[in-house]
Amino acid sequence: MGALKKLTLFSLFLGNLSLNAQIQKSSWLMGGSMSLSGNKDYSSFTFNPNAAYFFTNKLALGGAFDASQWHNKNNNTNSSSMAVSIMGRYYFTPSNKEKATIKLPVFAQGNIGLVAGSGVIFSSLGVGCDLFLTNSTALEISGGINTDNTDFSNLYAMVGFQIFLPPSVFKKKAE
User: Fold this and answer.
1) Among 88, 104, 127, 158, which one is most buried in terms of CB atoms within 10 A?
2) 6: pLDDT confidence band, cut at 50, 70 and 90?
3) 165-171, long-range: CB within 8 Å, 24+ apart, which pairs?
4) CATH number of the domain that residue 133 is part of
């Protein structure tokens, strides 16, 4: 099967998932984002895929991986880093079936993690919203603040893509 045909079938599958499962217990959130951030001394580009599980309605816990490229404006040097973090996300949007047709759920998210090989512990706190393109795929826009144990902090803005998978995707069909 050709790559285009597989992509089309996968897109149709995602487009047919129920809106009711977006932020309800036992659903999954998978996706990622790219961010640009900076302050007077640094600028950075970050790519961070994530996955989270909804343990209760509207509350997802999971993890993320961050790959970053930094530019130090003071001495014109570049560096890169990789990090892992745990994340928590809470949606303020109603999640019951009668109100699940809202297409712009708002969330707050927090992360805490470790930068590989450096001993740097970081945290971030932000807010955002998911603009649903289909019943289960969303364009995500968020912003917030990053800080770490080296007295570094900055503001960030992110654009990402998320896929919301209902519990039925992972259940075995009865034979």
Assistant:
1) 158
2) very low
3) 165/17, 165/21, 165/27, 165/28, 165/29, 165/30, 165/136, 166/17, 166/18, 166/20, 166/21, 166/24, 166/26, 166/27, 166/136, 167/21, 167/25, 167/26, 167/27, 168/21, 169/17, 169/28, 170/28
4) 2.40.160.20
